[in-house]
Amino acid sequence: MSVIEMRGIKREYRMESRSSSKTKNKGAEAVVVRALRGLDFSANEGEFVSVMGPSGSGKSTLMNILGCLDKPSAGSYTLDGIETSSSDSNTFAYIRNRKIGFVFQSFNLLARTTALENVELPLFYRRPEKKDILKSAYARKERAVKTLQEVGLADRIDHFPSQLSGGQQQRVAIARAMVNDPAFILADEPTGNLDTGMSLEIMGLFQQLNDTGKTIIMVTHEPELAAYTKRIITLRDGKLVSDKPVTERRNAFQDLARWKNDNVLIADKNKGAGDT
Hints:
8 helices, alpha/beta, Rossmann fold
């Protein structure tokens, strides 16, 4: 089943430039920046796709359109059966709340609220529907607690972000992204602020979520991280130039175990050298 269907997506920005000495009598000229140039992209339920490309390739623009933070200048984008290109602001807000789970590089947690309250937040903005099981405060809290348990933070629900490690903060952010059971998770450089060990933990969690059927789209510039996904698309100059499956997919938790073992050996070696 297709979760994302993009056809002929273009995004152009018109910018006014100051007139040059040759054209100063003609006024300012409009400069058109073509960020995306007729891009076709689709993702089925249960896929794990990494989006790569050099700076200026269109990754951020694609992410903004995928996340319904921006509209294309031309083309169609259907998300979980909803055609978004002509949607109004209310429909966009509904889609962002119910259909997309956002995970950012900088976590974007509210500093003065607990892990539980951060995860509950999207549920407060959930548009009430008939027979919605999450109408009551008790049901919302129960859902948030369960989601935190799923990311391994059952014993941290009352902690504030400042009391959590970077990896734990990102787990809270992932729980917040998952709590409304979105059609897909959109992750923008999710390990950019984490060290190697924490990065592997987060990629392992993403792989676990994907194994349960969750669709994940991850923007990254690191080939090492893309190797944990199932498919890599590459952008250049606003065009999709490559779309390939990951044939030798790595297991993040296995790599994490090896990394921990290597670091223990190095620590033991250094300790032994110090003793002598």
